[in-house]
Amino acid sequence: MSIRENIEGIQARIAAACARVGRNPAEVRLVAVSKTKPATLIEEAAAAGQRLFGENYVQEFADKTEQVRAPVEWHFIGALQSNKVKYLRGKVTMIHSLDRLSLAEEINRQWAKLDRPVDVLLEVNLGDESSKAGTGAEEAIELVRRVAELPFLRLRGLMALPPWLDDPEEVRPYFRRLREVARRIEALNIPGVSMAELSMGMSNDFEVAIEEGATLVRVGTAIFGGRG
Ligand SMILES: *Cc1c(COP(=O)(O)O)cnc(C)c1O
């Protein structure tokens, strides 16, 4: 199957998942996760109408933004060291992987130089032992309060990376938990904090994630094939 066929197939599955739960498909954006894939394949996806891409590694991202000519939008979704934030400055429209205050402060410092804010999502660890990424659900609220005070960050919602499980139904409780954490934060009515976005769901489980409220699904393999 071509990249175009893959994207069309995924868009149809997104629409079907939305229809099952009465959601508007316009609420769900497909993030094409292009880590390890060359710029030529990103161009191919862009030619098929894909506009939004997600990258995980700063150096690889910096190289590819030089190479890709198509007008695309980039989100950063990978683990992020503070000393590398400067390489993302002005090049990404959203960072999904904010998990600590020191990183938030560095993002704030870098976007201050542009005198405009960047959208961020708080990455929440939903209690999966195998993953250390993300802030704990309880600590999340304290971090939200601190991030809300940083003028060049716009907190737009939450992201989670649940364990990879064969049966997507087994991942459903994690997606529900993320939505529940978002509801709790929303109920606090912290000025400047929105919980409009839920970044959850990957190739194997994005339909279940959509049924549970995902607004950004991060799909790599199902678009570009395996990563070898
Ligand atoms: C690689 C990656 C994805 C995409 O995973 P696939 O299973 O290839 O769809 C999504 N989110 C994050 C954070 C990733 O690192």
Question: Would you write up a description of this structure?
Answer:
It comes from Trichloromonas acetexigens. Keywords: Pyridoxal phosphate. With 228 residues, the protein is an alpha/beta fold. It has one domain: Alanine racemase (TIM Barrel), CATH 3.20.20.10. It is 38% helix and 18% strand. It contains eight helices and nine strands. Strands 1, 2, 3, 4, 5, 6, 7, 8 and 9 form a nine-stranded parallel beta sheet that branches. It starts with a helix and ends with a helix. The structure holds pyridoxal-5'-phosphate. Residues 33, 35, 56, 77-78, 161, 202-204, 218-222 line the site of pyridoxal-5'-phosphate.
Sum this structure up briefly.
The protein is an alpha/beta fold and 228 residues long.
Write the layout of secondary structure elements.
Blueprint lengths: L2 H18 L8 E5 L5 H9 L4 E4 L2 H10 L5 E4 L17 E5 L2 H12 L5 E8 L9 E2 H11 L5 E7 L12 H16 L9 E3 L6 H6 L4 E4 L1 H4 L4
Parallel strand pairs: 1-2, 1-9, 2-3, 3-4, 4-5, 5-6, 5-7, 7-8
The structure holds pyridoxal-5'-phosphate (PLP).
The site of pyridoxal-5'-phosphate has 14 residues, from strand 9 and helix 8.
Function: Pyridoxal 5'-phosphate (PLP)-binding protein, which is involved in PLP homeostasis.
Pfam families: Ala_racemase_N
Cofactor: pyridoxal 5'-phosphate
